[in-house]
Design a protein that fits this description.
It is built from 17 helices and 14 strands. It is of the alpha/beta class and about 425 residues long. It has three domains: about 210 residues, Rossmann fold (3-Layer(aba) Sandwich); about 90 residues, 3-Layer(aba) Sandwich (Rossmann fold); about 80 residues, Alpha-Beta Plaits (2-Layer Sandwich). The strands form three sheets. It has a six-stranded mixed sheet, sandwiched between helices. A four-stranded parallel sheet has the order 5-4-3-6, with helices on both faces.
Length: about 425
């Protein structure tokens, strides 16, 4: 059992990164102890081979560590349980408080309920409904406060001081880091011949724990972190750049403005590079995991794959491991991502077609489109545009198609038949 100086919540009311000066840096022994502590109470998640994705991305081999298969849908179960089981009986009786955008909240709430520990969870006001409802289902007191995780953290520390609760930090705590590191031990047992690992970074707890375990046992494996380009907190911190965070990201689980002090020190020492990915790469990654692997991941969970998409030159021909760290994506967001992915791939397209506004013309258009093998999803008439003659109309036709070339063929055939046509969605060579 590691020895960690206790933190007085009354003295820790500043930002999420406030640290005890004598903060313990967990090592391999701590991670192995954590593995014993949580054994049988978290899921030993699979590390599956993904040959089809590997072929698409030109890597020699690809393994996916499926932490989205944990009971609460993310790796956070590991660190939360390890931290809660480190509490003294007196601390457990007083109760705990945590701040989180969702996954850490669920991990703490679920295991606190199992262990009979009173829990309070502070979540940012913009947290997806799915994560709020799932957290509440485990019985904690849930408080929505603040625009982001840092504001929620400040409020949570104030409540901790007022009510004498134990503050459970989502990443900058040695017990949390050691708990997350148990995933690294499993990866080495399941896929130990990797050349590199790509791990999402929010505050840095997951990558710090895994890097500590992996580099101690197989130092030749390279560790890469990945962040949303909108929240490059760890990337900027380790590269000496000024903070530059903000915006709406699909990867809200790693949208952290302030990396941990403990985790930053580990990342600086053990991580080869921190890569930044944009929203398009994150969307494509979520879509590819569903389409190719039938795996549902949230934006943060798909960030490792997004890095493979964005930086192919770094990983071509190598044996790569990705940590799919969470699967708690809002169903509405997932539906939008999947539809946008179909549009991006040219499998759904919307055409604007000018027709004579008279009986039988729409049927002729539909017959022509049907003859190409496309499926009409919906049709909207646009009769009130002022730039159209009174006896003509525009129709917007949404189609299910095979690929961009198929769409271009449909457009060409409509034009040949005398129907002025243009595409309203992207990826066409037609004007």
């Amino acid at each position: 059992m590691m020895t960690v100086p206790s933190t007085d919540p009354a003295s820790a009311t500043s930002a999420a990164t406030s640290q005890t000066p004598a903060q313990h840096v967990p090592d391999l022994a701590d991670i192995r102890e954590a593995a014993k502590t949580i054994a049988g109470e978290v899921v030993l998640t699979p590390c599956v081979q993904a040959p089809r994705l590997a072929a698409q991305l030109s890597v020699a081999d690809l393994y996916l560590k499926l932490e989205n298969q944990q009971f609460t849908g993310s790796f956070k179960d590991r660190g939360a349980l390890n931290k809660l089981k480190s509490l003294t009986p007196e601390e457990a009786k007083r109760g705990v408080i945590a701040m989180s955008a969702g996954n850490h909240a669920q991990g703490v709430a679920y295991h606190a309920q199992r262990l009979g520990i009173p829990a309070t969870i502070v979540m940012p006001e913009g947290t997806p409904f799915t994560k709020i409802e799932r957290t509440a289902s485990f019985g904690p007191r849930v408080i929505l406060q603040g625009e982001g995780i840092d504001a929620a953290a400040t409020y949570a520390r104030e409540v901790a001081a007022q009510e004498n609760l134990v503050f459970v930090h989502p990443y900058d705590d040695p017990y949390i880091v050691a708990g997350q590191g148990t995933a690294g031990l499993e990866i080495l047992e399941q896929a130990g011949d990797l050349d590199c690992l790509i791990i999402p970074i929010g505050g840095g707890g997951l990558i710090s724990g895994i890097a500590t375990a992996v580099k101690a046992l197989k130092p030749e494996i390279e560790i890469y972190g990945v962040e949303s380009a909108l929240y490059p907190s760890m990337h900027h911190a380790v590269n000496g750049l000024a903070p530059a965070n903000g915006g709406q990201t699909i990867a809200e689980g790693i949208a952290v403005k302030s990396p941990g002090a403990l985790t930053r020190s580990i990342v600086e020492r053990l991580v080869k590079d921190v890569l930044l990915v944009d929203e398009i790469a994150l969307e494509r990654a979520v879509h590819m995991l569903v389409e190719t692997q039938r795996i549902v991941a949230e934006g943060a969970g798909a960030a490792g794959l997004a890095a493979l998409i964005a930086y192919p030159e770094l990983f071509q021909g190598r044996k790569v491991g990705l940590v799919i760290c969470g699967g708690n994506i809002d169903a509405r967001v997932l539906a939008q991502v999947m539809m946008r992915g179909l549009v991006r791939e040219g499998r759904i397209a919307t055409l604007r077609i000018e027709i004579a506004d008279q009986p039988g013309v729409l049927a002729s258009v539909a017959k022509l489109i049907g003859s190409t093998g496309a499926n009409i999803i919906e049709v909207h008439h646009q009769r009130m545009f002022f730039d159209l003659p009174v006896k003509r109309a525009d129709i917007d036709v949404s189609l299910e198609t095979r690929n961009p070339a198929h769409v271009d063929d449909i457009i060409a055939r409509l034009k040949e038949a005398g129907f002025l046509t243009r595409r309203l969605s992207s990826h066409s060579t037609e004007g």
